[in-house]
C-alpha cells in the first residue's frame, strides 16, 4: 500500500471560493437556529412582562379609574400569546424586527392617548414612570439577536418615542436626556454583544466544518490565521509516522455486501481512532482499510523531543490490544478475526498545503519518511510480525526494550535497514 498523507477541504481563504461559501452557509445556519430559539424566548418574556403590566393596570380600574389601560393591556396579552404560538409553529424572517418595532410604537401610542381616557385628563403618573423601564426591557431583547444595525436603530427609535411622549405629557425637562442617553447606549451595547456572539459562532462553525476534513494540526493553523493556514506552502518538521493496513480484508470483502463492508471497516477504524486520540496523534486520513497517523507535530522546538516516537509506539501497542477486543466481539458474532500490519518510522517531512487555491487544497505530509513508514508496514508480512519499527524511531526511545530482527531490504534504500518489533 502506498501511503501519502492527504486531508481534503474544498476551497481556500478568499471569499469567492467554495470553502468560504460552505463556511458562510454553516455560520448562517447556526445563526438561524440560534435566532429561532432567541425569538421563542423573547416571545415568552414578552408574555411575562405584558401580563405583569396588565396586573398593574387592574388596580386603577378597581379603584374607580378608567378601564382603558386594563382593556388595552388585556388585548396586548392576547397579542403576545399569539406571537408566542406563532414562533413555535413557524419563524418568518423578519418577525423579531417587526415585533420589536410594534412593541416600542405601541408603548408610545398607548401612553400618548391614555390621558384622554383618564378622569384627570392626563396619563397616570405610574404609567409614565415605568415607560422607560418597559422600553429598556424591550431593547434588551436585542442582546439575543445578532443584528448590530437594528439594535442601534431600535434604540434610536425608542429614544425618540420616549422623548416625544415625555414632552407631550409632561413638557421637556433636561433630566429626560439622561434616560434618552441610556436608551441609546443600550443599542450600542446590544450591537457589540451581537457582534461578539456572531464572531464566536463564526469560529464555532468554521471549527466544526474544518474538523470534518482536516487533521488536528491543520485546524489549529487555520484557526490561528485563516489565510496563512489555507495558503500554499509548507514547513520542514521531524515527526514519527505510523502506517497501518488491514490484512486480507480485500478478499474477505468480496463475500460481503457493500453495507457490511462499510460497517466492518467503520468498527475497525473506530477502534484505531480511539487510540490515536488517546495518545495525541494526528490522524491524517483513512485510505480504504489503511491509515496514516502522525505524531510529534507539537514538540519540534523541545531540545530533548523524541518527535512523537514514544507516543507512536504506545499507540501501536494499544491498537493491537484494541484489535484483540474487536476480534473477541467479532468471534461472538460469528465473524473471522482481523489482522493488521503497522510500520513506524521517524524522519523529516514537509507539512503544508499543496493544490490550487480556490479549487482544491490538501494538507499533506510528504517526504521519504512517509514512504519508509508505508514500506515497513508492507514488510510485516515478510517478517511475520504485526509491527516493524525503524532504527531512527528506536534511537529516540528511552524506556522500551524492543526486539531487533535481521536487517531487511526496503525499496528505495541502497542498503538493508535495521528493524525492530515489539518484544
From TrEMBL:
SMART domains: CYCc. Keywords: Membrane, Transmembrane, Transmembrane helix. PROSITE patterns: GUANYLATE_CYCLASE_2. Coiled coil: none annotated. It comes from the Bacteria. Residues 240-377 form the Guanylate cyclase domain. The keyword Membrane applies. InterPro entries: A/G_cyclase, Adenylyl/Guanylyl_Cyclase_3/4, Nucleotide_cyclase. The keyword Hydrolase does not apply. Residues 1-22 are annotated as: Disordered. Pfam families: Guanylate_cyc. The chain crosses the membrane at residues 43-62, 68-86, 98-114, 126-143, 150-168, 174-191. PANTHER family: ADENYLATE CYCLASE, TERMINAL-DIFFERENTIATION SPECIFIC, ADENYLATE CYCLASE, TERMINAL-DIFFERENTIATION SPECIFIC-RELATED. This is Adenylate/guanylate cyclase domain-containing protein.
